[in-house]
Amino acid sequence: MTETTHPGTALPPGQRRIDFFPRFGRRVDQPPPTVPARPTVVFGGALTTPVEVAVDELVGADRRELDADFHCVAGWSVTGLHWEGAAFADVYQRYVAPAVPPGTTVTHLMVRGLDGERFVAQLEDLLADDVLLADRLGGRPLDGDHGAPLRLVNPAQYGYANIKHVCRIDVLDGPPQAGSPALVDRLLQSHPRARVWEEERHGTLPGWLIRPVYRAIKTFMLAAAIRRGRAAGEPGHQSNAK
Length: 242
Known about the structure:
Blueprint: E1 2-5, E2 16-17, E3 40-45, E4 51-54, H1 55-60, E5 63-71, E6 76-87, H2 88-96, E7 108-113, E8 118-122, H3 123-126, E9 132-137, E10 140-141, E11 151-153, E12 166-172, H4 183-187, H5 207-231
């Protein structure tokens, strides 16, 4: 089944379209993490007992296809990406819901990647119809740049919520306690929901106000991504091929 989410339509506020899909994020100066020979996803947190599922099993049943746009909080968008994988809602009902103890109300899920990145999402956001755990992009298996072996894909949220290299998902019965962030983290504080059509770029500042800062970051990091692609001898940057 193929679903479509805003591909090729007007972009969300403050976004500009680019014609390639770069590796982007806080760790681009490091190589992608090594993927285990038999990758798994562990579901933990407020469960009766942790559940570990092989990625092949996770995405092997009831596969979905999704045509959607990808929106980076830095202000760039790639349109018309073709993802394949398992609907997150199906995965939740199959593996997580049966392991939730009676009387526990799940409110949030913490999604973690092999690269150390994580995002705490509200359960209702991840149960939307267009949220996938994807293992393929543009008709090919995910590569290291874009989240192998498994990536969370939620077109309604900015890219930092679309965790790459998914390896663990913790079930929470309430929002986690927030620590005291460092100065840099306060300046670029992420929004807890990151919804693109509401322009939820920053935890405290309005999206339109923070746009110039993120655009400056975008200009620098996209230039670096182009240089890396040329150095690696990539034949071109196609939005549906990277």
